[in-house]
Write a structure and sequence with these properties.
about 70% helix, 19 helices, about 300 residues, single chain, mainly alpha
Length: about 300
């Protein structure tokens, strides 16, 4: 650090300043090695991001080091400017390609990075959509054999479509709702819990009259949810969640159905599901602390 200060003084002083006089035979100061500057100040974020993916993609990088590199990249893209720079650095195609990696932990890491990057970031959302990111994430959600990978894919999709009408349009165009319905039908308790939370949030966004219409989904969304058979799929899921004693997922499912009843078509679909009342009555003994009175009143 002392040598760096001396270099700055010698090279920054003008002739009229009190810089030490330089004799004729004195050695000419050399420019600092960029590696030394990097060691002192740290590499630019753009370089770090690129190096993270270089490490993940290198065939000789151990799995644990690949996971660490993706963790580091995820922390970097928490910064909105860094996340926006994924596109000019041409890192999105490389990141999306990792969704098909043989290692589940790498697939999880790549989806985690993507979901963090696009969350509340219009620039990153636009780039993700340009590279068909939601289509790739939905494919993982539908087809991956590892439940924890599917869970992270749902996180990625949710980050992209929440408060993003253009992203939601891409989601719907790529059969997003039927794929989420499959999650409700065959996902684990944790995955179903996140699916119900997402559905509830999307309905709330559609019904939020404070937000301008152009910034929120229209009534087509809750109406489509009501018409696609989500109520019946949720009832079947409720039976399994009761048997598995998965109270948190059960609570999110009840919340979703209650929110859906705020629309005419949703309320009609719930009331027409004859099996729902019996499922709710059966679950009350198992989950006495979960509020179901509002939904029960709708069914009565």
């Amino acid at each position: 650090m002392e040598s760096l200060l001396k270099w700055a003084i010698l090279n920054g002083a003008t002739a009229g300043e009190d810089a030490p006089a330089r004799s004729a035979d004195a050695p000419v100061p050399q420019r600092l090695d960029p590696a030394v500057i990097d060691a002192i100040l740290g590499k630019p974020a753009s370089v770090q991001m690129t190096e993270c993916l270089d490490a993940v993609e290198h065939p000789e990088t151990p799995l644990e080091a690949r996971e660490v590199a993706l963790d580091d990249l995820e922390m970097l893209v928490e910064n909105i400017d860094n996340a926006s720079n994924l596109e000019p650095l041409n890192l999105w195609p490389r990141l999306l390609n990792l969704y098909n990696d043989a290692a589940p932990s790498v697939r999880i890491g790549a989806l985690w990075v993507s979901g963090t990057a696009v969350q509340h970031n219009p620039n990153a959302q636009k780039a993700f959509g340009k590279h068909n990111g939601v289509q790739s994430a939905l494919s993982v959600l539908q087809n991956d054999s590892v439940d924890t990978v599917r869970t992270k894919a749902l996180y990625c999709v949710s980050s992209f479509i929440r408060a993003n009408v253009h992203g939601l349009t891409d989601f719907v165009a790529n059969n997003g709702l039927p794929i989420v319905q499959l999650v409700v039908e065959n996902g684990s308790g944790a995955l179903r819990q996140k699916a119900f939370f997402l559905l509830h949030a999307l309905i709330d966004e559609a019904l939020d009259e404070v937000t301008p219409e152009e910034l929120r989904p229209g009534m087509y969304l809750p109406n489509a949810i009501a018409e696609l058979g989500f109520v019946e799929a949720t009832v079947n899921a409720l039976k399994e969640l009761t048997e598995a004693n998965h109270g948190m997922a059960y609570e999110q499912a009840v919340g979703f159905l209650t929110a859906l009843c705020a629309t005419e078509k949703g309320k009609q679909a719930v009331k027409e599901c004859d099996a729902l009342k019996g499922v709710l009555d059966e679950a009350k003994a198992r989950f006495p602390d979960i509020e179901t009175d509002e939904l029960s009143q709708i069914l009565s």
